[in-house]
Amino acid sequence: MPKTKFIRRSSAKQSVGGEVENYYLHLGSKPSPKEHIIATYRVESRFAWEKVATEIAAETSIGTWTQLSTLKAPIARKLAGRVFNIDKKKKLIKIAYPLALFEKASIPQLLSGLAGNVFSLRMIKNIRLEDLDFPQKYLNNFGGPAFGRNRVKYKLRAKNRPLIGAIMKPKIGLSASENARLAYRLWVNGADIVKDDENLTNLDFNQFKHRVEQVLYEKTKAQLVTKKKKMYVFNVTATPDVMMKRAKIVERSGGKCVMVDIISVGLDNVQMLRKANLRLIIHGHRAGHSAFTRNPRHGISYLVIAKLARMAGVDQLHTGTVVGKMADVEEDVLEVNKSLTEKFGKFKPTLPIASGGLHPGLVPNLVKILGKDIIINFGGGIHGHPSGSSAGARAASQAVEAVVKGKNIKAWANKKDNKELKQALEHWGS
Amino acid sequence: MPKTKFIRRSSAKQSVGGEVENYYLHLGSKPSPKEHIIATYRVESRFAWEKVATEIAAETSIGTWTQLSTLKAPIARKLAGRVFNIDKKKKLIKIAYPLALFEKASIPQLLSGLAGNVFSLRMIKNIRLEDLDFPQKYLNNFGGPAFGRNRVKYKLRAKNRPLIGAIMKPKIGLSASENARLAYRLWVNGADIVKDDENLTNLDFNQFKHRVEQVLYEKTKAQLVTKKKKMYVFNVTATPDVMMKRAKIVERSGGKCVMVDIISVGLDNVQMLRKANLRLIIHGHRAGHSAFTRNPRHGISYLVIAKLARMAGVDQLHTGTVVGKMADVEEDVLEVNKSLTEKFGKFKPTLPIASGGLHPGLVPNLVKILGKDIIINFGGGIHGHPSGSSAGARAASQAVEAVVKGKNIKAWANKKDNKELKQALEHWGS
Questions:
Q1: Nearest to A79 among B172, B240, B383 (CB)
Q2: Which of chain B's termini has less CB crowding within 10 Å, N or C?
Q3: What is the DSSP string of B34-97?
Q4: What pLDDT digit, counting tens, does each position of A191-223 carry?
Q5: Is 70 exceeded by the pLDDT of residue A5?
Q6: Which residues of chain B have pLDDT under 50?
Q7: How many structural domains is chain B composed of?
Q8: How far is A89 from chain B (nearest CA, A)?
Q9: pTM (2 decimals)?
Q10: Number of Cα atoms under 13 Å in the Cβ half of residue B211
Q11: Over 90: is that where the pLDDT of A13 sits?
Q12: CB within 8 Å of A152: residues ≥ 6 apart
């Protein structure tokens, strides 16, 4: 036998704590919150817990399925992921990883390790990365939001109320000038923020550059007319080189905010964008996340994604509606929103966005559950209003007004100035 | 009622084919393979098939959950995703999307649309994007592999045999110089290709730049000694700006190949790297894919990812082993390998890589299933050899030799020159 021993996993000859040293299993040991990244996995497997936990810790740090001649004991003891807790009832395995395993400011490298091959292991039936906790030292490598919740709310003079967001609908189909004129109507009828939808980028009949020009022209007009600050969210989701070019177009044109689909381009792009310091608010869309977050038994929790998004520099992030068209779970959304705004490194809070299937009648319940420090995005819930988009924007702002003033929404809708809200409630219910 | 009608989905008032026009449902119609991208979804829902299919087609193209005043009929008829087939038995829904919906060369934009919010819809229990088919016109926007299978095999003079890849193990823990010296031993003992593992990027004790310098120095030596061409795969997985810098370091230093984790940084990064035309072979690692590919009922099939990877420009791609530590299904791996090498646009074939838990004893079965046009990656299966990594590399190449010569591996192991193979078979079985 070679001197440097290594547990031979996936093998009948395995001997935990016997003549072969298990570098990975340290049940009951205490990780150092200053020196370790801690991952919590939820696991289902027909194999013994200790065996499975060892396999996971090895695959996510320095090991593989067999004993290695090249892994010297001092290195292994220094770098191995250390399983310190197994909660068999909750199916949770907690592993502490020494910081030396990680590149300084690379979300991709972190994910390739802790959310990589581990999902493929044959020995495991289901595995979900539920949570990650980071030492301050690691977090210091990341910029976090350049603006964050408070700055966004201040910019739009909305300290004590939710922000009203309006999504362009149809998702795709309007020309740049139709898009701009519609945005104007939404702003003057009460929307604070108007935004591109997730698949509207640069299309033949609505080119990015034209959209930026025309929308910002209309924004200036809307600000003059309403004497209020308005915002447009330009979708710069693209390959990284193109994304940067488009973000610079927005910056040079006087725009203030860009949207990145953090799933389809990844948080690596957000990191790059943040580092470029273009003084643009970063709006994080999350189309596609449910491919791996929705199954509670396998994949990655959205909590993990949200924490990483805040580290990377997302100022405002889609997190769920609880009440809309998307299948999110109330307690999950609350947990994510809490994680975006509670103390975390030295980062500013990220502003949560509720988006997907919302209409005015849902606003009271939404705010009751999620609070006032959110952006409420309406798409169909504005453009589907029986009297059109302008009426839809008015109905949305009347609904928000009712909630902010503590009024019953149905009573509020009966006031003669609020007939658009009344129509909306009749159309979609409340 | 407004003139432009739109089906009100998720609503009791919905009337398919009645007074409200359903832009999305065209069962039995024929899509044009020259004008449409065709998506195949596998779906589970308790709602009626037509209703669910309409919801999916709307959400992935231009619609949302309610009737929109802003969606004019001519635009809707032109841009809607069109459901043309529902196979209730197989649970498959096929939708044709007009090209006007898509940006020319943006995998992120494609994914935000077709693999975006659709995974979140409350109405659907499970949904998996099983396949995508593309018109030539769309494919022409992409570069595909700059080198491809044949060029890689030619460069390494391996026309009629599998290539032998050796993965650095431990994944993390060796210094740059230990790494380089170990690579030398692997090359001179038979490996064609030596590669970084997925979480080895730029670490304090093994810095990228040093690794490149020292590894390429050892590669030159190994080529002189063996009189054979060798390759090293440098992992450039990082944020896009850093990834490009590292790729340029490899290029300037005379390296030939870089590895990108196509999941943790995304195919958008591969597109950018390919466009830069650095004359580097792009090696696609896939750590993390199983977070959304493993569940056969929900997520995205690896077939879709593999097609997109070929479009983006991946020259050689991890696709599964069937026989190793990873949980892949034989028919899926075969289908993916076929899709990488069959006619597809004007793209060169991508070389499939079998990687994960392989050892010499598995080679005959592996090649029997997957054929000779693959890279066989060994990690633990080399470094776990009882006599060390050099012996491991010899055993791996003896196993490949046996298969190429059509010899029985056990008989071949009994030849006196092949004692390393014999040891490997005794150690891990065959």
A1: B172
A2: N
A3: TTEEEEEEEEE-SS-HHHHHHHHHHHTTT--SS--TT--HHHHHHHS-EEEEEETTTTEEEEEE
A4: 999 999 999 999 999 999 999 999 999 999 999
A5: no
A6: 1-19
A7: 2
A8: 23
A9: 0.95
A10: 31
A11: no
A12: A163, A281, A315, A316, A351
Q: Is residue B85 part of a domain?
A: yes
Residues B186 and B299 in one domain: yes
Greater pLDDT, B45 or A327: B45
Chain B residues with CB inside 8 Å of A385's CB?
Answer: 69
Contact A112 B388 (CB under 8 A): no
- Where are the strands (E) in B67-215, listed by range? 82-87, 92-98, 126-133, 163-167, 193-195
CATH number of the domain that residue B83 is part of: 3.30.70.150
Residue B39 and residue B65 in one domain: yes
Q: Which residue shows structure tokens 């896009």?
A: B240
- Considering only CB atoms, which chain B residues are within 8 Å of A8? 384
- Do B218 and B290 fall into the same domain? yes
Using an 8 Å Cβ cutoff, are B270 and B260 in contact? Answer: yes
CATH of the domain at A320: 3.20.20.110
Q: Residues for chain B: how many in total?
A: 430
**Does residue B15 form part of some domain?**
no
Residue where a domain terminates, one of A139, A167, A186: A139
In this structure, are residues B83 and B95 in contact, taking their beta carbons and an 8 Å threshold?
Answer: yes
Average pLDDT over residues A305-331: 92
Does B359 qualify as catalytic in the annotation?
A: no
pLDDT average, residue stretch A297-326 = 95
Given B117, B139, B161, the domain boundary residue is B139
Determine the Cα–Cα distance for residues A428 and A419; give it in Å rounded to an integer. Answer: 14
Question: Does residue B266 form part of some domain?
Answer: yes
Residue B398 CB partners (closer than 8 Å, separation 6+): B190, B360, B412, B413, B417, B418, B420, B421
**What pLDDT sits at residue A20?**
64
| The pLDDT of residue A187 is above 70 | yes
Are B268 and A198 inside 8 Å of each other by CB? no
Is B79–A327 a contact, with Cβ atoms under 8 angstroms apart? no
pLDDT one-digit tens code per residue, A56-110: 999 999 998 888 999 999 999 999 999 999 999 999 999 999 999 999 999 999 9
* % of chain A with per-residue pLDDT over 70: 95
Same domain, B174 and B120: no
Domain that holds residue B221: 148-428
Give the pLDDT score at A331: 94
**Residue B75 shares a structural domain with residue B179:** no
* The dihedral formed by the CA atoms of A240, A241, A243 and A244, expressed in degrees to the nearest 10: 110
pLDDT tens for A123-138 read 999 999 999 999 999 9
Residue A7 has pLDDT above 90, yes or no: no
Q: Stretch A237-256: mean pLDDT, rounded?
A: 98
- Asked whether the predicted pLDDT for residue A1 surpasses 60, the reply is no
Question: Same domain, yes or no, for B178 and B208?
Answer: yes
Q: What's the pLDDT band for A310 if we cut at 50, 70, 90? A: very high
* Number of A–B residue contacts, CB under 8 Å: 350
Q: What is the ipTM of this complex?
A: 0.94
Helix B240-253 vs helix B208-226: angle between axes, to the nearest 10 degrees?
30
Q: In what order do the strands lie in the sheet with A92-98?
A: A82-87, A92-98, A36-44, A126-133, A299-300
Whether residues B116 and B228 fall in one domain: no
List all residues 6 or more positions away from B192 whose beta carbon is below 8 Å from its beta carbon: B156, B158, B163, B164, B165, B228, B229, B230, B231
Q: Give dist(CA B317, CA B281) in Å, integer.
A: 11
pLDDT of residue B20: 64
- The answer on B178 and B63 residing in a single domain is no
Structure tokens at B163: 């290539």
Residue tagged active-site, from A169, A195, A318, A359: A169
pLDDT of A31 over the 70 cut:
yes
Contact yes or no for B170 and A62 at CB 8 A = yes
A12 in a domain, yes or no? no
| A114: nearest Cα among B172, B174, B318, B314 | B172
A318 in active site: no
